[in-house]
Amino acid sequence: MELTVTAALLSTALLLVNLASILLASLKLKRPGRIAPPAGKAPPVSIVVPSRGVEPFAEETLERAFSLDWPRYELIFCVAHADDPVARPVTDAIARFPAVPARLLVGDDHISGNPKLNNCVKGWEAARHRWVILADSNVLMPRDYVQHLMAAWRPDTGLVCSTPIGSRPDGFWAEVECAFLNTLQARWQYTGEAIGLGFAQGKSMLWDKPMLDANGGIRALAAEIAEDAAATKLVNGLGLRVNLVASPFEQPLGFRTLGEIWSRQARWARLRRVTFPLFFAPEILVGAAVPLALALVAAAGAGFSLSATALVVLVVAYLPECALASAKSWHLSLRMVPAMMARDCILPIVWARGWLSGAVDWRGNTMTIHTSAVAELEETPSGA
Hints:
This protein is an alpha/beta fold. It has a domain at 43-257: Spore Coat Polysaccharide Biosynthesis Protein SpsA, Chain A, CATH 3.90.550.10. 47% of the residues lie in helices and 17% in strands. The protein is built from 13 helices and 12 strands. It has helices spanning 2-28, 58-65, 87-96, 115-126, 145-151, 172-194, 209-213, 227-237, 258-275, 277-280, 289-302, 306-327, 336-354; strands at 45-50, 73-79, 102-106, 131-135, 157-162, 165-170, 204-208, 241-244, 250-255, 359-362, 365-369, 375-379. The strands form 3 sheets. The protein has a 7-stranded mixed β-sheet, with helices on both faces. β10 (359-362) and β11 (365-369) form a beta hairpin. This is Ceramide glucosyltransferase. It comes from Mesorhizobium wenxiniae. One of its GO terms (cellular component) is membrane. Its main location: membrane.
């Protein structure tokens, strides 16, 4: 009987924490909405875009970058190798939009085991303006992209970020990717901000360049294997805050396979494990798997129907997630609940993988991430 009561209480507690996280995140998040261009003099902005390979929706994301509703900005595209397939579409876009100052820089500065950070160094050093945005190439920038980032800056801010929101999934496993990115990872990141635990996210990062340069510059982000983890610790160490935009930006997904999802989630889990181990440890309790297992143990001990118990737990777990996605205009379809269930089956395995060493893949780069947050990087040829 004691085991039955304990399992029931733990299951209920975890479901309540899950619900609380959704409520807290919903208070921080806003539905996508346009922000008008600044009426007065707006500061010029440099946008550094590290690129590797031609991704789905590359033409659209490039066009969006050249169509921002901000008076003065420059685009600095960075590739590690001149023969990277993405170099041609970038140079074509630069030619099509001559009104926007833009450059393509080629070269690789090996300051860390993080290939993305290495690719960004030359762009950071070439940036002409005080405000610098590091933006992943697969971010679908809205016209008011800069406005959203600037609007989140406060006097005590050291960095503004946006977590990616998955959109346009093609196939079931892309739906699973949406379930990971949106109502799980984004939700918990905004929950963290709501309780004063702001964590950086590398998809879109707005920096005050003189502030970062005074504290080691972009090379200071090599202190951790993940640049966003290093950014979080650097900013917090200065007594400043990491803020998130109120309406996070889209990342169109296209087609995804189970192998691609596993590769990304395993890498991210390992990175979280070595950079923030105390926050990573309780991740095993996130999702429906653990509360469902506990509820079934309690139901079996009390003689309740296992199928009815499972149904109640799944409704309590997933209906609020769907409500959050609907309220914030995120992707939602009839396949999302099965996708959430698949995600929560994968989560415990990903969590266990996070505690193990060994090689992971980072966009064509094979690396071994050690417990010291250092990586050994073996780069494959560009475009592989």
